[in-house]
C-alpha cells in the first residue's frame, strides 16, 4: 500500500522532517555518485561500497568488535570463455569510530532508488504531523531514538549477521507508530494494488498502519523461522514502530504534546474553502 496524502494539516513548518529528508538525500546522492568512483585506499572497491561497510551496522561487529568480519562480493574475472562472475571473501572495511555508533549512522544510508524514494515519501506523509505535536527538538530526539531502537532490534534478532544493515525504515516506522497514537482516525488516501488492478481508497490511519505492522510482523516471523530468505530488516521495522508508539503514548500521558489541530483546520480545496476530507 502506498499513502498518497493524509487529511491532517501541519500548523508549523516541519523543519526537522525536511532536514532529515535533506540529509538522507545528500548521503544517498553521495552513494550514487560514489558507486562509479574507485576508492584508492580500499583497492578495487567502489567508494559507495566503502561507505556501506564503514557506516552500515554489522551486528556481529557491534557485539564483538574484535571479531574479524568478512564480506562476500561478486567480481568479474576474464577467462578463455569470456568474463565470468566469481565470488570472493575479503575483510570488511572497519568503521571510523566505535562500532556501536553505527546503530545511528546506518539510518542515513539506503540501498537503491526504490528503497530511498519509498522511505522519503512515507516520512514526508507522516513526519510533519508528528513533529507538529512533539515540537522540533523533541521530534529530532524522537526520530533518532526510534532509528537506534530499530537498529538495536535488528542487532539482537540477527546477532551473527555480517551483512551491513542500512536504511531509515526503522526510524520512519517509529514515526508511523507515533502517528497511529496521535491520529488513529485520520483518513489516508491510499493506492492499493489488488492482484492486477490498482484501487485508490480512503483508509483510517489505524487500518492503514495496522495492516502495515501486521505485514512486518508476519514477514519477520517467517524470517526468524527460517522459511524465508530476504534482505529486508523486518524486525527493525517492528522495533522502530513499537518504540515510536510507546514514546508518544508516554509523552501523551505526561501531557508533553501540543493539542491536535481543530477540525476547522483541515485541508483546503483548490477554491480556498475548507473541507473535512478529500
Order of secondary-structure elements: EHHHEEHHHHEEHH
Shape: globular
Average pLDDT taken over every residue: 84
What does the radius of gyration come to?
21 Å
Low-confidence stretches: 225-230, 268-276
CATH architecture: Up-down Bundle
Q: Proportion of β residues?
A: 5-15%
The level 1 CATH classification is: Mainly Alpha
User: Number of DSSP strands?
Assistant: 5
* CATH topology category name: Rhomboid-like fold
| Count of discrete domains | 1
What structural keywords apply?
disordered C terminus, globular, 278 residues, three-stranded antiparallel beta sheet, alpha+beta, Rhomboid-like fold, 9 helices, two-stranded antiparallel sheet
Would you mind describing this structure in some detail?
The chain is an alpha+beta fold. The protein has a single domain (about 1-65, about 95-255), classed as Rhomboid-like fold (Up-down Bundle). The protein has helices at about 15-35, 45-55, 60-65, 100-105, 115-135, 135-155, 170-180, 205-225, 235-255; strands spanning about 1-5, 70-80, 80-90, 185-195, 195-205. It has a three-stranded antiparallel β-sheet with strand order 1-4-5. Strands 2-3 form a two-stranded antiparallel ribbon. β2 (about 70-80) and β3 (about 80-90) form a beta hairpin. The longest helix is centred in the middle third of the chain and has 22 residues, at about 115-135. The two termini are about 20 Å apart.
